[in-house]
Design brief:
- The chain is globular.
- The two termini are 28 Å apart.
- α3 packs antiparallel against α17.
- By secondary structure, it is an all-alpha fold.
- The chain has 17 helices and no strands.
């Protein structure tokens, strides 16, 4: 606890300094060459270096953490924890999307103010996504694990790590025991490296916040401002309404104490806008601050970094309905229910990286015949909203770990 508190405070200070400096730079120096040089040659490289250092450790730490988490479980415990995690994910994601859709229908941000959609910059071209259920299931199973790592395919890598962990736990030989010890050593080294990287956190976070606010500025007007406010309101309702209720009812955990213990992970998630980049920090917070069992926390958090994307699912639903309102595309209740179901299922496979929701949104826009160039409306504020929804995603993973750990307590205590 004591080791994490100064880090979280210094990162918060770095974020605040970067945000204030970025707003001042936007107000007084927007459009000048000097600000362009500062952003392009100082704040962007510093922020990207911090992100790259985190991303560099993500894939190996996912492998080591998930394999060791599986090995420390009996197979019966693994199946039980997996079922509880999946049930929690689907139910809570459903609640999150429902909150988002209710907010956007009530506020109607797409009909507030005036916006000339013809002047919006064209959205980036999105790759075609095969929506066949069979293809989506098969895509989770990697034909080449190294290829999955190289392409950043987190679901495929999770599948390989899970299968590898099951195989290692079933193999009772001297060599397998040595390999298990070696993977534990790998995990220990990676966690030490993460602690070293996080010492650079205040500088990296400050640079990321400066870049965002210097480019975006303090003013977001009209329907886009209403849209951003709607997303943030829905995220806040889920964060400070649903999560405390789940903690109180399902895990007998004081919500205020929980938010204090997890603030470092939340700040890291907010600044990096990446669930996968925050995973190492979340794992450390779960074990050192929340004092959760390692077998439960490692499995729930590593799987949750890709599968439990409450904030991303909520954001996708709000964005699709907002763009439908802007373009005057009427969505019946049946179509909105379809959006809800797609968002819940897509939240299981949304990439835990910045802007990982955009391909899913583009897919739904194509299905609902909403002009694809409408994505250009949200690109200006997407970074800020990405930071907010990622903080909700990571907090949701930690809530899930607390709930599942509490549900597992009777089984663990009886051993």
């Amino acid at each position: 606890m004591t080791s994490s508190t100064p880090g979280s405070r210094s990162m918060l200070v770095g974020a605040l300094i970067g945000a204030v400096a970025g707003i001042l730079a936007h107000v007084f120096f927007i459009g000048t060459k000097g600000l362009g040089y500062v952003v392009d040659y100082l704040s962007v490289p510093l922020g990207q270096a911090f992100l790259r250092l985190l991303f560099m450790l993500v894939m190996p730490i996912v492998f080591a953490a998930l394999v060791m988490g599986v090995c420390e479980l009996e197979l019966g415990s693994l199946a039980r924890i997996a079922m509880k995690t999946m049930a929690y994910t689907l139910v809570v994601s459903f609640i999150a999307v429902a909150i988002g859709l209710a907010a956007v229908n009530l506020i109607q941000p797409g009909r507030i103010g005036s916006y000339n959609v013809d002047q919006v910059a064209p959205a980036p071209q999105q790759q075609t996504i095969d929506t066949s259920p069979i293809e989506l299931i098969l895509a989770i199973i990697p034909d080449n694990p190294i290829k999955a790592v190289a392409q950043g395919d987190m679901l495929a890598w999770l599948c390989f790590s899970l299968i590898f962990g099951i195989g290692l736990s079933l193999t009772k030989t001297e060599g397998a025991a040595s390999l298990k010890s070696g993977i534990q050593g790998l995990y220990d080294v990676l966690m030490r490296l993460i602690n070293m990287v996080l010492k650079l956190g205040p500088v990296g976070v400050g640079a990321l916040m400066f870049t965002t606010t210097a480019r975006l500025g303090p003013q977001v007007l009209g329907s886009v401002g209403a849209y951003a406010g709607t997303v943030i309101l829905a995220l806040a309702l889920h964060m400070f309404g649903v999560y405390p209720l789940l903690l109180w009812l399902l895990a007998r955990k004081n919500p205020v104490q929980f938010f204090k213990e997890t603030r470092e992970a939340s700040i890291t998630a907010f600044s990096t806008a990446s669930s996968t980049a925050t995973l190492p920090t979340a794992l450390r917070v779960a074990e050192e601050d929340l004092k959760l069992p390692r077998d439960v926390s490692r499995f729930v958090l590593t799987a949750g970094a890709t599968m439990n994307q409450n904030g991303s699912a909520l954001f996708e639903g709000v964005t699709v309905l907002f763009l439908a309102q802007v373009y005057g595309v009427e969505l019946t209740m049946a179509k909105q229910l379809m959006v809800l179901l797609i968002c819940v299922l897509a939240g299981v496979g949304t990439a835990g990286v910045p802007a990982g929701t955009l391909p899913v949104i583009a897919m739904m826009m194509r299905m609902l015949e909403i002009p694809a160039e409408g994505l250009g409306l949200i690109l200006g504020v997407d970074r800020l909203l990405d930071m907010c929804r990622t903080s909700l995603n990571v907090t949701g993973d930690l809530v899930a770990a607390v709930v599942v750990a509490d549900r597992e307590e009777p089984q663990n205590s009886s051993v």
